[in-house]
Amino acid sequence: MSEQDNEPEFDASAIGDEEIITGEGFDPTVTDDERLRAMRSNLDGFELEDDDLQLLGADGEFLGFAEPEAEALPVVAIVGRPNVGKSALVNRILGRREAVVEDVPGVTRDRVSYPAEWTGRRFTLVDTGGWEPDARGIDASVAAQAEVAIELCDAVLFVVDSRVGPTATDERVVQLLRRTNKPVFLVANKVDDAVQEPEAAALWSLGLGEPYPVSALHGRGVADLLDAVLRKLPKESAVAKPQLGGPRRVAILGRPNVGKSSLLNKAAGEERVVVNDLAGTTRDPVDEQVEIAGRVWTFVDTAGIRRRVHLQKGADFYASLRTAAALEKAEVAVVLFDVTQEISDQDLRIVDLVLESGRALVLAFNKWDLLDDDRRRYLEREIEQDLAHVAWAPRVNMSARTGRHLEKLVPALETALDSWDTRIPTAKFNAFVAELVQEYPHPLRGGKQPRILFGTQVQNRPPTFVLFTTGFLDPGYRRFIQRRLRERYGFEGSPIVLNMRIREKRQRR
Question: N or C: at which end does the chain have fewer Cβ atoms within 10 angstroms?
């Protein structure tokens, strides 16, 4: 069970002598190994299943996680004017609906990287927003991101709508591409059958060589295109940063306009993602390696979560799904709050989303430079009342716009990840359990008292424990155990999962 049950807390001080069966006094002279053997012997005579036995070795089964290897994969950028099917082509190459697609121009705004593979070769695919000349406002920022993607890639897929033919905007993009020395592949999209193939011939006029007729919607011609791309793609990227020791992945979450993209840009030291006063600017998760206080991280900027997913529609709906998917790939989540506004139900749903995912958690209170004394008093009260269930999460007060206290994120992230990675040896954990239940046994329920027979940590990331018991433990008592675990071992910034396996005595024959 997680730490989110709503039943009342177990209050050890409120238990009367008549409500418990008092255990024997805890003997501190007994070693952890001796106590482990004694706790293990508690299971003798109980019905155990095959998966139980896998956990009951000398030290229990432990599921670890290997760090990714360092490598610099070649980068392929997909560019073109708005609504020619760039994101649809991304999804076709990836073989899944990863990029947000909607039948209106301008859905994609940032340059978004995805790991891709074709015939055993791995590369990075970069989706971009539509490029337009003389764009203003947010469209100018989108176009700038597309131009950066061209500079930071090893090959370019220039997507054109074959049904429309070459346009003035397409010709401006060609001028941009000719200034690079990268191989460029002209992709004639929306050629759904052989009858439409002659329409692609008009694209020879762009001067980029033979167009590749494809249908991103149906997959027609995409395999031939990828074969041609891989023949020109280098084995190792000339522009991509190598993965330096597998930097830890940090998801930046929050409701729209709390400063998630500003935080990523300030950490990266460049305008990596589009920032605009328009709420909901980001729609696709954006990965970026950043260095803060000498430590390299992979930051993932995500779309703002507006409201419940089933009430959303269009691009916002798919953006929320991809935000949840990005969280699953992350190791720690930084949930941003706007301190100039009250903590809302929306903020609390985002925190709950992180708890449900089992990721480490850091709470970042943004726009601290705009906080006045009156609002500060109300904010502390809101944190105490609304965020009491995550009081164990590190807090950072900062300003993403100015970069103030940005470096304080590093110790908070390191603390949360260390806790998330923690493993308690089975002997020490059983010594902890034995001491706890002898001091505060479970209350009687219906004349019976559930006993904890044995316990072990079966996994980290997050720390997950299994207790073998003779009956159901009250939710309040489970939270009491989790609280004592935090008092003993810390676990600052990490959720704790406590599962039960109720076992009955073996029938005599």
Answer: C
431-482 tens-digit pLDDT: 899 899 988 898 887 788 899 988 889 888 899 999 999 999 999 999 999 9
For residue 232, say whether it is annotated as part of any ligand binding site: no
320 with 226, same domain: the answer is no
Query: Are both 261 and 167 inside the same structural domain?
Result: no
Do 30 and 86 lie in a common domain? no
Which pair of tokens denotes residue 265? 């840009």
Q: Of 419, 445, 472, which residue constitutes the final position of a domain?
A: 419
Q: Characterise 60 by phi-psi region: left (phi > 0), alpha (psi -120 to 50), beta (else).
A: left
As given in the structure block, the two tokens for residue 344 are 């809302």
Q: What is the pLDDT of residues 254-282, one digit of tens each?
A: 888 788 778 877 877 665 444 344 434 33
Q: Is 403 annotated as a binding residue?
A: no
- 3-state secondary structure at position 425: coil
Annotation-wise, does 105 bind a ligand?
no
Question: Do 396 and 473 fall within a single domain?
Answer: no
* Domain count across the chain: 3
Does residue 347 have a known ligand-binding role?
no
| Ligand-binding site membership of 497 (annotated) | no
Residue 302 in marked binding region: yes
pLDDT digits (tens, 9 = 90+) for 152-172: 889 999 999 998 888 888 888
Distance of alpha carbon 317 from alpha carbon 310, whole angstroms? 8
- The answer on whether 257 is annotated among ligand-binding residues is yes
Q: Which domain holds residue 344?
A: 248-419
In angstroms and rounded to an integer, the radius of gyration of the C-alpha atoms of the chain is 28
Residue 259 is labelled as binding a ligand:
yes
pTM equals: 0.60
